[in-house]
Amino acid sequence: MLLLEIVSPEGHLFKGGVTSVTVPGSDGEFQMLNHHANIVAVLVEGTIKIAVPDFKTNKDFSVKFNKSEKDQKFLLHIKSGTLELKDNRIIILVD
């Protein structure tokens, strides 16, 4: 399992264990799974897709996330951001 942390200027939007994360990279959308190679990436406007067995976030930020009925992923629209994945820990800073 991956540890994902999504941070915005407003605060920590999400922190928890996930099975996969798909992000809008500058060269196209890409997905990270357990044991993915370390990476640093620039994110562009688009949607972060989070596959998580038990989604929990601060109630103040829950309105920022939508749930996809198609594939049961949680979706977060972003304007831009940066991502670092190292040793199964992903930190995403978003605008």
TrEMBL record:
It comes from the Bacteria. InterPro entries: ATP_synth_F1_dsu/esu (IPR001469), ATP_synth_F1_dsu/esu_N (IPR020546), ATPsynth_dsu/esu_N (IPR036771). It is a peripheral membrane protein. Pfam families: ATP-synt_DE_N. Keywords: ATP synthesis, CF(1), Ion transport, Membrane, Transport. It is found in: Endomembrane system. Its main location: membrane. Gene3D superfamilies: F0F1 ATP synthase delta/epsilon subunit, N-terminal. Residues 4-95 form the ATP synthase F1 complex delta/epsilon subunit N-terminal domain. Produces ATP from ADP in the presence of a proton gradient across the membrane. Belongs to the ATPase epsilon chain family. This is F0F1 ATP synthase subunit epsilon. It comes from Flavobacterium arundinis.
